[in-house]
Amino acid sequence: MAERTKPKRVTLTLDQREEIFRLYTIARMEQAEIAKRFGVTQQTISKTIQRIIGDRTGHRVDEWRIITLRRLDDLEREVRKIMARRWPRVSGGKVVYETDHDTGQLVRVDDPSPNIKAAGVLAGVLRDRVDLLGLKAPVRVSVEALDLEGQIAALLEDATVADGDHDDDDASRS
After folding, report:
1. Fewest C-beta atoms under 10 Å: which of 23, 48, 111, 135?
2. Is the pLDDT of residue 90 over 90?
3. Environment class of residue 42 by beta-carbon count within 10 Å: exposed (0-12), middle (13-18) or buried (19+)?
4. Among the CATH numbers 3.40.50, 1.10.10, 2.60.120, 1.25.40, which is that of 11-58?
């Protein structure tokens, strides 16, 4: 029977842990790729990231917020570039042209679809920013308390009275 060997414990330096976290959060590198780079398992990388997140939740939330806001800013900038551009309508792999009624010349037909999709992404970015900054107005919830106990008692009373009426009918039939 083959002996099970205990995996050797890897100790990462503070600099290595910070680099792992940076590669994962900023560079958006996959955990498996980071693990290869550091010569450890993906599980080690996952646990390292979880520990760092746990350590940061209390006193470094603002740093997280800043990083996320920067990403949202970058994404918004790229989306706005897409929206500023005019996109040609393409059909059958060719750009579509139509005749301009005023000049009689052929002009390229614009396709609004990329801008519409970009507007949807932009709306999501703005929603994420509102959530991140806590700018949503509180939601009011109305709860109507029901007198269930009273209703149950009334139903039981009605049922008891109704049963009493049937008992009299049963007695007169006998």
Report:
1. 135
2. yes
3. middle
4. 1.10.10
